[in-house]
Design brief:
globular; single chain; 2 domains; mainly alpha
Length: 338
């Protein structure tokens, strides 16, 4: 008896779909690492293309992966060295900060009413930090596995990612192919904006922070500027963490002029200018999408998806806008043809 080919055409995708769904469920703890490595690979593809003009694709992918590893290793080593070299000064600031809180609790009649609640809150905070550090130490083996998987998958994405994507989308109908190509282009531009713009903002923060911290007069200009630049990579909070701690330190030693300087000068120059002037313009420049929508994507992604939402939030926002434009374009073409 002849087998119905249509039945096989439906059965095969169903089996493959169940198979890939099972793999996704099994690898779910590593999914954020795989998504992160894929997104970084998309941004690094232009560098791979330039290298592949002078060497084989495999050698170019290996060199791109090695370059990324060395870059991250150098940055991490420099940060750890600066923190270790200035540990005494940072400990002094933290100690004065704690003493300032204790003095505030003892001397202020209003705050003393809530002394027990504040003390419990501080105790909970210290306990949380201690538990987090302990959990991080216990998770070091798994963290090492994640790092290995990140660079291995990054290498494979660089080497075979474009080929596999092209192999799939070339089988699509013409209209669907054009829409998917546009969405992939938007994806590349969005990831470029998220990563490259974040790097540019960090460099901008480092440069504008140096004269600000020099005028502050507390020394360690390079350290404070580097910390502000690194904290700029943390969405929402950013350099405000450093500025807030420095303001509390200034209060603890009675330096009210430094507090005013941090609030009136340092905060607008370092933080507000980057978040509300430079970042939206840089993020919207390449994608031609309203910067406000990009900021909604960033904050919405963080609220719903956590840290990985910093990448996926703007990406989903850009894809939604592009999908709407494609749909409206097809609707207008249908009306004109009718």
């Amino acid at each position: 008896m002849r087998t119905d080919p249509t039945r096989h055409d439906l059965l095969t995708p169903a089996i493959l779909g169940i198979f890939f769904l099972g793999i996704t469920i099994i690898l779910w703890p590593l999914m954020s690492v795989l998504i992160l490595s894929m997104s970084v690979a998309v941004v690094c593809l232009p560098f791979h293309h330039r290298l592949s003009r002078h060497m084989s694709d495999g050698a170019s992918a290996a060199m791109t992966t090695t370059g990324l590893f060395l870059l991250l290793a150098v940055v991490a080593s420099a940060v750890l060295f600066l923190l270790y070299d200035n540990a005494g000064m940072l400990l002094s600031i933290l100690t004065n900060f704690i003493h300032a809180i204790q003095a505030l609790l003892q001397d202020s009649p209003f705050v003393s009413r809530f002394a027990d609640e504040i003390a419990r809150a501080l105790t909970s905070l210290v306990t949380f930090v201690a538990e987090y550090i302990s959990d991080l130490a216990l998770a070091l083996p798994f963290l090492l596995v994640q790092v290995i998987i990140f660079f291995c998958s990054f290498y494979l994405y660089i080497l075979k990612g474009e080929y596999l994507l092209g192999h799939v989308i070339r089988r699509l109908p013409d209209r669907t192919y054009a829409a998917v190509r546009k969405l992939t282009h938007i994806t590349g531009d969005t990831l470029y904006s998220v990563y490259i713009v974040s790097f540019e903002i960090s460099v901008y923060t480092f440069l504008v922070s140096m004269p600000v911290f020099y005028l502050l007069g507390y020394g360690n200009v390079i350290l404070f500027s580097l910390l502000a630049a690194l904290l700029q990579l943390i969405p929402v909070f950013g350099p405000q963490i450093l500025l807030g701690l420095l303001a509390l330190y200034a209060l603890s030693i009675g330096d009210t002029s430094a507090v005013l300087f941090l609030v009136v000068v340092a905060y607008p120059v370092i933080s507000l200018s980057a978040d509300f002037f430079v970042r939206p313009r840089l993020m919207g420049r390449r994608m031609a999408i309203n910067p406000v929508l990009m900021m909604i994507g960033v904050f919405g992604g963080l609220a719903l998806l956590g840290v990985i939402g910093f990448i996926l939030g703007p990406l989903f926002t850009a894809l939604a806008v592009s999908a709407y434009e494609i749909l409206m374009g097809e609707t207008e073409e249908g009306e004109l043809s009718a």
